[in-house]
Design goal:
The chain contains 6 helices and 12 strands. The protein has a 7-stranded mixed beta sheet, sandwiched between helices. Helix content is about 25%, strand content about 30%. Strand 11 (about 215-225) and strand 12 form a beta hairpin.
Length: about 240
């Protein structure tokens, strides 16, 4: 991994001739991602992210923290928050922004002795699952990291709207055998191209069904267009 996403974040934080990022997927053309958007304050965040931050409680794990905007807001409001990301450069920027607990970690490698009352997966948080098969791995890990009364707050988007519709209202989806939200995702920055990664756009019903299979409760907290915020909790044992 070239860590172009992290490099863009660090360049902006250190005023090192930052440029905007460009992203593309297997079903969409090159699109601009303004780098300053990753440094937005609470008032500039989408309502789904604001709602997640309002619901956050206890000790918090911010997964895929990026530039750390969610963690910074929570820390400023006296929460015990830990920001993690697989990007060393993004975590360096988080530390430069003043985030006290910021570490380079893969979520799946975290020590299961540490439990969290809130785990955040934001900015299409379902993307980290990569594909439908790996959802099982992540949900198993979530069960091991959640405190007894803990919660996961995760946002996602149903991208069925991106596919053409036939005369009967059905959708024309490529018959490659994959779920329509399983995409290849590529980042471009300063003339370089990052290694392509798998990224998952997941509809709520599929997320809920996967959670039910793992004996996790999943409820929709808020919707905004084709996107949603969901809360996942452990099932209460009698």
């Amino acid at each position: 991994m070239k860590d172009l996403f992290g490099q863009a974040i660090l360049d902006y934080q250190t005023n090192n001739s930052p440029e905007d990022l460009y992203t593309e997927t297997s079903i969409s053309e090159l699109d601009i991602m303004p780098i300053d958007y990753l440094f937005r304050g609470y008032d500039e965040m989408p309502s789904l992210e604001q709602k997640a931050l309002q619901l956050a409680k206890g000790n918090i794990l911010d997964v895929g923290a990026g530039a750390g905007s969610h963690s910074l807001y929570l820390q400023e409001n006296k929460f015990d928050v830990t920001a993690i990301d697989i990007s060393p450069k993004a975590i360096e920027a988080c530390k430069l922004r003043g985030i006290e607990k910021a570490n380079v970690h893969n979520f799946l490698d975290l020590n299961e002795e540490n439990k969290f009352e809130t785990i955040l997966f934001l900015m299409n948080g379902t993307g980290i699952f990569q594909n439908l098969i790996l959802i099982n791995v992540y949900l198993d890990k979530i069960k091991k990291l959640l405190a007894e009364n803990g919660q996961v707050l995760i946002d996602g988007t149903d991208i069925i709207y991106m596919f053409d519709e036939d005369e009967d209202g059905g959708k024309w989806i490529p018959s490659n055998g994959n779920y329509y939200g399983e995409l290849d995702f590529t980042v471009h920055y300063k003339g370089e191209i990052e290694d392509t990664i798998n990224w998952l756009y997941l509809d709520f019903d599929t997320l809920k069904n996967a959670c039910n299979h793992h004996k996790l409760n999943c409820t929709k907290v808020k919707s905004e267009g084709d996107s949603y915020l969901a809360k996942i909790t452990l099932e209460v044992r009698n």
